[in-house]
Amino acid sequence: MTDFSALRGQFPILDQTIHGHPLIYLDSAATAQKPEVVIDAESDFYRSINAGVHRGAHELAARSTMAFEHARASVAALVGADTREGQEEIVVTAGATAGLNLLATAFGNASLGRGGEEARRFALKPGDGIVVSQAEHHSVLLPFQELAARTGASLSWFSLTPDGRIRTDMADEVITERTKIVAIAHVANTTGAVTDIAPVVRRAHEVGAIVVLDACQSVPHLPVDFHAMGVDFAVWSAHKMYGPTGVGFLYGRRDLLEALPPASFGGSMVELAWMDKPAQYMEPPARFEAGTQPVAQVVAAGVAADWMRSVGMDEIARHERSITHELLKLADVDGIRILGPRDEDHRIGTVAFEVEGVHPHDVGQYLDSQGIAIRVGHHCAQPVHRHFGVVASNRASTGVYNTVDEAQALVDAVHGVRPFFGA
Ligand code: PMP
Which CDD domains does the entry mention (predicted)? Predict the structure, then answer.
């Protein structure tokens, strides 16, 4: 059994007071704090290894290449992707948003006939369909909405249950013979609801559509195995899984990555370049990693992945579940409505709530004055807020370092909000 209170000591940032109170950080859905091993990995890289990868003939370049590729394998092992050399399924990106734009751009390039015959499975034409859900982060909605606009494809979406879960039971109706791409959250970043992805994958593959999973909010909190899930592509950010900002990962099934045309162009992704004819691009993952990569951050993200696996994803999920249970007691506070499922069975510890009569910014400031950090606003997901009839909400979200006592402290503090503002 992991001693989570000892593990909390590995996060130096948490050991401080805010406005005279011990910091209670309940904003890990926005970005997670970093354990010492991750912070050290990034600075150690600069102290002893730093060099360009995949090209230098010198020893440092060899070491940095090894560290970079080792990190790719660590990340692959975390999510059930292939770790074998030559069979890599993990592409380095600048984050989930960059990964989603990479995919939408690459699909768009395929629609323009780029990538040849192999890439035709990704091509869209007028009348084809792209499916998302009403719970998506704008980083999913907008790239695919733009792709639809560029190609003449239509955009449709899964609607939500009253408590905000994606209606994947409607997969047979929402995904049609014309659907080419389904892009959907594994866990929604406002409601915290875990999507029942199996019917989506089954139906999408029945009609030959590609499934793109937004795994930003699942990889940090739940055991995830993309092979077992059968998704085609997945994206997430390192900074939400205890790694550095500025990097993320794209998982792609190997045969699909091999068929996908590139989305950005430049150095390190080309086998042969000429003045008078098109270039010949490298095999994945290099084909999708144009330009100098954030090597130190990738190496540190690999350490984060190893660290998560050493703690154990089942253990992390179990620990956070006990905190979620406590957070859900918010529902018992007078004038509080939870925007998401009320039971911890089908959700993670990302709990959005409305305080009747008090603007989220006021709620956020009130809690901050007691050292409690939560997120307020629309969390880059306006349509899901519209579903609940609000423009913004308050969102508390857990990480491995949180305790049940901290969740209780939040609930106690929320009891005081409406009386304080006279609502
Ligand atoms: N999708 C979801 C579900 C998210 O929570 C986030 C981050 N808020 C993103 C996509 C975008 O991630 P990033 O801003 O790190 O690119």
Answer: SufS_like (cd06453)
* Residue ranges of the chain assigned to CATH 3.40.640.10: 43-309
Cα 69 to Cα 158: distance, rounded to the nearest angstrom: 38
Q: Ligand 1 pocket, 237 CB below 6 A?
A: yes
23-40 average pLDDT score: 98
Q: CA-CA-CA-CA torsion for 160, 163, 164, 168, nearest 10 degrees?
A: -50
175-219 pLDDT, tens digit each = 999 999 999 999 999 999 999 999 999 999 999 999 999 999 999
- The atom number, within ligand 1, closest to the CA of 29 reads 5
What is the location of CATH 3.90.1150.10 in the chain?
A: 4-30+313-421
Has the ipTM of the complex gone over 0.90?
yes
Quick check: bond before 285 cis, omega within 30?
Answer: yes
Architecture of domain 4-30+313-421: Alpha-Beta Complex (3.90)
Distance CA 53, CA 69 (A): 9
What is the residue-averaged pLDDT of the chain? Answer: 97
Outline where DSSP puts E strands in 173-240.
179-185, 210-214, 233-237
**Long-range pairs, 341-344, Cβ under 8 A, ≥24:** 341/163, 341/164, 341/165, 341/191, 341/192, 341/193, 342/163
Answer yes or no: are the C-beta atoms of 411 and 333 closer than 8 Å. yes
**CATH 3.40.640.10 is the classification of domain 43-309:** yes
For ligand 1, the distance from its centroid to the CA atom of residue 276, given in whole angstroms, is 40
Tens digit of each residue's pLDDT (9 = 90 or more) over 243-282 = 999 999 999 999 999 999 999 999 999 999 999 999 999 9
Q: How far is the CA of 191 from the centre of ligand 1 (A)?
A: 14
Sheet holding 393-397, edge to edge: 336-338, 350-355, 393-397, 375-377
Q: How confident is the model at residue 1 (pLDDT cuts 50, 70, 90)?
A: confident
Atom of ligand 1 nearest to the CA of 136: 3
Active site residues: 380
42 CA → ligand 1 middle, Å:
22
Q: Quick check: CB of 250 below 6 Å from ligand 1?
A: no
